[in-house]
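Need Heme chaperone HemW's 3D structure for a figure. Predict it.
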Amino acid sequence: MPEDGALPATALAGAERRPLGFYLHVPYCATRCGYCDFNTYTASELRGSGGVLASRDNYAEQVVEEVRLARKVLGDDPRPVETVFVGGGTPTLLAAADLGRMLGAIREEFGLAEGVEVTTEANPESVDPRYLAELREAGFNRISFGMQSARQHVLKVLDRTHTPGRPEACVAEARAAGFDHVNLDLIYGTPGESDADWRASLEAALGAGPDHVSAYALIVEEGTQLARRIRRGEVPMTDDDVHADRYLIAEEILSAAGFAWYEVSNWATSPAGRCRHNELYWRGADWWGAGPGAHSHVGGVRWWNVKHPGAYAQALGEGRSPGAGRELLTAEERRVERILLELRLVEGCPLELLRPAGAVAAAGALEDGLLDPEPYGRGRAVLTLRGRLLADAVVRDLVD
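Structure prediction for Heme chaperone HemW:
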């Protein structure tokens, strides 16, 4: 990775035809959730391992510096930014003014497209009506709250600190602040969760009135506290059949409420309610990821930053790119990635992307009821509901 972050000329070839987005990573959390393996840090984890450099107090300025670096690297790229997504961690541990400064740097250096989507994630306990109003005034128009569950015993297993009912209240507060789009994140398959618990969580989420719901199966990652608890036999592990049942419940309840799936784990009340930033990822467009551990992709070049906030701050303070490494994707790798990602979308992927073995597998998936016949006849592989349950297996067969 060059110290100045320079990209090969091929990366910007044809850039004007691709959307450009920004992801801003905020790596701070008040506490660590037992299931989480994201690149995040609590205050106690940073103490003595980054000190002042890793402080939340000066973090916004570090991100601003990387945005300025992006401007230098991308040169005279004329594209305004179409989506901005602030994730974490818990972005709302920073002052709303700090998030506004980070967004302001993107506006100043690149310009924001008309109708830009600007999202931040938020912990329900880290915001109040005044904070949300300040975010909206700063230019944020979409917000995603981590609800996970409406049941206290499920939240306890996940080590979530908010109380049941608080995420739903946050939706009302965000609407009152003027947010156009509100998402609630849910997790299913937590040890000890029942079908009734999951239905209650879905009903509570819908009752709050969001226009977007994300529902993810719990993945037990090695090295997490939850993985250790399961290994010690303290809590049970759910299986794939349970996950499938919960997914079907989600589809049943969400579709009955007027939500339509547009990606395997995401539902929206209308096309306008979709998360355009995530669609940018799934369609292989360009995005710059700023922050410790953030990943970027521009024109077939993918790179990632150093993970520790202290190392990130030091690199920028010395005028160096915080990039830790990068790879140039081959045409074959990009073809495979298109299948992996686009097949998860309601529009599916073009059958012309498939090699002969993949085309044979697609015909078999159609016969098995995993692909929808109508779009297949138009040259696209689109998952049926049963296909969504087996999406990973279908993808493996099609990229063969």
